[in-house]
Amino acid sequence: MTGLFAALHGVRLRAGALTRARADPYNERVSRCLLALSAVVLLPLAVLATDARTAVEAFVAKVAGAPVVDLVLDETFTLYNPDGRYSRSSGEQRVWIKVPRRQRIEQVMDGRREVRLVDGDRVWIRSADGKVREAPAERGRDRTHLLVPFRRSANDVLAEWRSLGVRDDVSHVTRMGGREITVIGARPGERQTPAVWLDPERGVVRMVVREKLPRGEGMVDLTYSEHQPLTGGLMFPYRQEAFVDGKMVVLIVVRSVAVNTNLPDTLFDPDALRRSP
pLDDT tens digit string along 152-174? Predict the structure, then answer.
């Protein structure tokens, strides 16, 4: 989830982990640049004409039939060194999502706890020192609604993809893991072009976009795999990975997903966040 990453969306709290260790600047920058996020091998087919809008409309219609009003995700995440060779830091996060566009993300990394509230285009952050501030919305951070676009039309989804540089007038069909995938935004063989890989049953399984990163602009490749049933025939990816210029920088593993738990509005209230101990 989550500007991908990384778009680290959410975090699970662990008792006793809330020390005041100094944050690693690299970890903080990466965790704010990427979101949501599985290494996969694409096996290109011959060019087969397919209509991006038709593929998106079919999936959005499938999502519309699923009775989902809220989600709770428990996840672990690992941040890797910029060269992708070894892990640099790890943590836990819990994410509360209330359809259509509200989130609460609690994250513990390097012994520091951060709480982030998202309500549409507004963002509030409670840092490790207990101070709460409203922050600018970060482009691309909240992409959960693109993975499972509850209460959104095909026009909404395509418009947001276009804002990320994905062309909806270019598409082709390929195969991945024996499954037929519609690739929107790129022609066969184009690897440095913003694109979305859409599985008719699983939804978005890969997204490639250009992002401003700590070391300059780069290609961010987000992959989603190990899908498990969610509800109403929908699937959710339990493994999410982010690659920058071919090197893995973030791994998120979903440990559990709870659906329709009737989340209270106070979870997403910035005033309640300021009052909390």
Answer: 788 888 888 888 899 989 999 99
